C-alpha cells in the first residue's frame, strides 16, 4: 500500500538541548515536545526562523543527534508492525536502517578522499548488493541528468565547485530508491536550471511513494513540491 495514509516516519515528543561542555556547561535548549508524522507520497518542509532548530530536528531524525526525550519511529520492512526506534537503536541496526530505508542528503558532500565521483554515487547501490557495473550505469545516468560532465566522473569530487558537489551529493542520495528521504537544503548552491532538475527528482521519488522531509529555504521549491509546512516556533522551544 502506498498513499498519504501510510505513515513512514513518526517523531514522538522529541526534545533536544545542547550542552557546551567546553564552555562551562552552557545549555542551549532547541526544542521540546516535537511530534511529526510523515506519510508515503508526502513532502514535509521544516519551517521557521533561523535558529529555530530545523537542522537539529533533521539530524535528530537521522540519528546524528540523540534526543534528550522522545522517539524516532521508522517503518523498516514490509509488515505493518515493522517499526524501529532509531533514537535508541544500536549502531548496527541504525546502519542497516540507513542503508535500506532512510536516505539523507546533507548540504555538503563528505566522502572518502580520492574515490572517483562515479563510485561515490554508485556506492549506496553496491552496499545494497547491486552488481558494480549496473550500479555505475545508474550512477552515470543520474550524474548526466544532473549535468555533471562525464569528464569529471573519474575524478574525486573534493575539488569540484559547491554546486557540482551538491549535485553529486543529490545523485548519491537518490541513486538507491529508499522509502524515506531527509533533505538538508538540497538546492541551496544551485542555479535555476539545476534546481528544477533536483525538484523533479524529489517529485518523482514522492510520486513513487517515498516520504520526504526537508529544509527548503527557497519558497519556489516548497511550492513546486506542494510541501506541507511543519513550523518550528518559539512554542516548541524551551525558555
Ligand atoms: N552542534 C551544536 N552544538 C551546540 N549548539 C548547536 C549545535 N547545532 C545547533 N546548535 C544551536 O541550536 C540552535 C538551532 O540551530 P539549527 O541549526 O538547528 O537552526 P536552524 O533552524 O536550522 O537555523 P538556520 O535556518 O539558520 O540554518 C541554534 O541556537 C544553534 O546555535
From TrEMBL:
Q: InterPro entries, from UniProt?
A: AAA+_ATPase, ABC_transporter-like_ATP-bd, ABC_transporter-like_CS, CP_lyase_PhnL, P-loop_NTPase
Gene3D superfamilies attached here? P-loop containing nucleotide triphosphate hydrolases (3.40.50.300)
User: According to the lineage, what is the superkingdom?
Assistant: Bacteria
UniProt cross-references to Pfam families, sorted A to Z: ABC_tran
* Gene Ontology MF term list: ATP binding; ATP hydrolysis activity; lyase activity
What are the residue boundaries of the ABC transporter domain, all occurrences included? Answer: 9-237
UniProt keywords (A-Z) are: ATP-binding, Lyase, Nucleotide-binding
Instruction: Give the family this protein belongs to, as stated in its UniProt record.
Output: Belongs to the ABC transporter superfamily.
The cross-references to NCBIfam families, in alphabetical order and at most eight, read: CP_lyasePhnL
Under what name is this protein listed?
A: Phosphonate C-P lyase system protein PhnL
- Organism of this sequence: Roseospira navarrensis
Q: Gene for this protein? A: phnL
Amino acid at each position: 500500500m502506498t498513499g498519504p495514509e501510510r505513515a513512514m516516519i513518526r517523531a514522538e515528543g522529541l526534545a533536544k538541548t545542547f550542552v557546551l561542555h567546553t564552555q562551562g556547561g552552557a545549555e542551549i535548549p532547541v526544542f521540546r515536545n516535537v511530534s511529526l508524522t510523515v506519510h508515503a507520497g508526502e513532502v514535509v518542509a521544516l519551517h521557521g526562523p533561523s535558529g529555530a532548530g530545523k537542522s537539529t530536528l533533521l539530524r535528530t531524525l537521522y540519528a546524528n543527534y540523540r534526543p534528550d526525550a522522545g522517539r524516532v519511529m521508522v517503518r523498516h520492512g514490509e509488515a505493518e508492525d515493522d517499526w524501529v526506534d532509531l533514537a535508541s537503536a544500536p549502531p548496527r541496526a541504525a546502519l542497516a536502517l540507513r542503508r535500506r530505508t532512510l536516505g539523507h542528503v546533507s548540504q555538503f558532500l563528505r566522502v572518502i578522499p580520492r574515490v572517483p565521483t562515479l563510485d561515490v554515487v554508485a556506492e549506496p547501490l553496491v552496499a545494497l548488493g547491486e552488481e558494480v557495473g549496473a550500479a555505475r550505469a545508474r550512477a552515470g545516468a543520474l550524474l548526466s541528468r544532473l549535468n555533471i560532465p562525464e569528464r569529471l566522473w573519474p575524478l574525486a569530487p573534493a575539488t569540484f565547485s559547491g554546486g557540482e558537489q551538491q549535485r553529486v551529493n543529490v545523485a548519491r542520495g537518490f541513486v538507491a530508491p529508499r522509502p524515506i528521504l531527509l533533505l538538508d537544503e538540497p538546492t541551496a548552491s544551485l542555479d535555476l536550471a539545476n534546481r528544477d532538475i533536483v525538484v523533479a527528482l524529489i517529485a518523482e521519488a514522492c510520486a513513487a511513494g517515498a516520504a520526504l522531509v526537508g529544509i527548503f529555504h527557497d519558497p519556489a521549491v516548497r511550492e513546486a513540491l506542494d510541501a506541507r509546512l511543519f513550523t518550528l516556533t518559539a512554542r516548541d522551544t524551551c525558555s
